[in-house]
Amino acid sequence: MLLIGLALGWLTLVLGLLLYRGAHRWWRTRRYGAPVDHSVLLAEYGRKMTDALDRQALGEVLTVELPRVLQVEHAVLLLPEAYQLVTINAGDLRLPVSHAAVRWVASGGEAQRADRGRLRELIQQGRADLAWTKVWVPLMRGAELRGMWLLGARSGKTQYAPEDLHWLTALGRQAAAVLEATRYAERERRAASEMRALYRQVVVAREVERGRMARELHDGLLQDLCAVTRDLKAWEAQLEANESLFTDLAARSGEAVHALRAICNDLRPPLLQHDLASALKSLVEELDARSTSPVHIEIAADDLNLSDDVALAIFRITQEALHNAIQHADASEIAVRLTLYPDRLRLTVTDDGRGITGGVEPARFVAQGHFGLAGMRERAAMIGGKLDVQTAADYGTVVILELPR
């Protein structure tokens, strides 16, 4: 009888535990909804937040994707802006950083339910625009508040479980880290954009000054020298004495005229006013005459219809690439090709020389005081193009500029 009693007692205890666990599980499901695997969600959405490139992308994860998974009816992300927390999605909700509720949640550093403690009191004191909130999640990075994530009620009137709050706290801290990274990235992008704008101003100013100098030299000094050369030749024809002196003076004056024409042409190619193809052909002919490596050009582009800025940038990139190939490549042949495709304009400058050892990272050349490659990349960016340099030791180098039509 004793054994039967013990067996019945154990059976009753086990049944009681099972009933308790079942009732507890039913009560939790009714109160908090179906169980959620927080570790899987944390890994998945942590990765999505890390992949966010800017604040808007992060806001999409926190206010659209995650609320959909958690069956949250409404969510808002507030980020600091001029001593206020301002929503980045639809709505005009604003909270001063010094707001008592903000300070209280931030001081705790963890997700807080809005129906308890000071949050409930503050909302009841007149902040009707916060009445919908159920959970406040501070986005903390150390002791710094990077934002506030507000979550509304869950569908089916289920509440947030304690483990939900711990999980939301972890997500908030990871979001704060992503916000800090994106802030630094945006700062770097702004700095790069400002540097590019500054470089654009420098390039434009330099080209304007080149044009002015070319006009001044051509219309002033060059014309005077041409007149002097004509007078010297006229006197040479009239006077027999000192004939060798006049011949020498005329030759020297003619050389000065030729040199000034070359300077004017380099400052602002006159053929560029007509079309890019003619200017490139003239450039190649001039360099081919002076270079020990033959330089060829092939143009398959009709009716380019390019603006002056674009044509000038393409000309300068070609000029720089050719000078680099002639000076450094030790090539047996250099080729320029300009091809117009239905969707893009493509320029290539190819040589079969020694190649560039150590890679073509512009920063390396800038550190050595060589700005040609960086300048070509910046000129390409200014006109919306992309410059690529492909090289290999003893196999030569090819500079490729592609410009969308």
Describe the structure.
- The chain is an alpha+beta fold.
- Among the domains are: 38-186, GAF domain (Beta-Lactamase, 2-Layer Sandwich), CATH 3.30.450.40; 274-404, 2-Layer Sandwich (Heat Shock Protein 90).
- The chain has helices at 2-32, 38-51, 55-70, 100-108, 117-124, 162-238, 243-267, 276-290, 308-329, 362-367, 372-382; strands at 75-81, 84-87, 94-96, 112-113, 135-141, 144-151, 295-300, 334-340, 344-351, 386-392, 396-404.
- Strands 3-2-1-6-5-4 form a six-stranded antiparallel beta sheet, sandwiched between helices. A five-stranded mixed beta sheet has the order 7-8-9-11-10.
- It is elongated and about 145 Å long.
- The termini are far apart.
- 22% of the residues are buried.
Distinctive features:
single chain; about 400 residues; alpha+beta; Beta-Lactamase; Heat Shock Protein 90; 11 helices; 11 strands
What is the fold's blueprint, element by element?
Blueprint lengths: L1 H31 L5 H14 L3 H16 L4 E7 L2 E4 L6 E3 L3 H9 L3 E2 L3 H8 L10 E7 L2 E8 L10 H77 L4 H25 L8 H15 L4 E6 L7 H22 L4 E7 L3 E8 L10 H6 L4 H11 L3 E7 L3 E9 L1
Parallel strand pairs: 7-8
Antiparallel strand pairs: 1-2, 1-6, 2-3, 4-5, 5-6, 8-9, 9-11, 10-11
**CA-based shape:** elongated
Reading side by side through the largest sheet, how are the strands ordered? 3-2-1-6-5-4
H/E element sequence = HHHEEEHEHEEHHHEHEEHHEE
Secondary structure class reads alpha+beta
Query: N-to-C terminal Cα separation, in Å?
Result: 97 Å
Q: What is the class of the domain at 38-186 in the CATH system?
A: Alpha Beta
Mean pLDDT level: 77
- Architecture of the domain at 38-186 in CATH? 2-Layer Sandwich
Beta strand count: 11
Largest sheet, in brief, is: 6 strands, antiparallel
Number of helices: 11
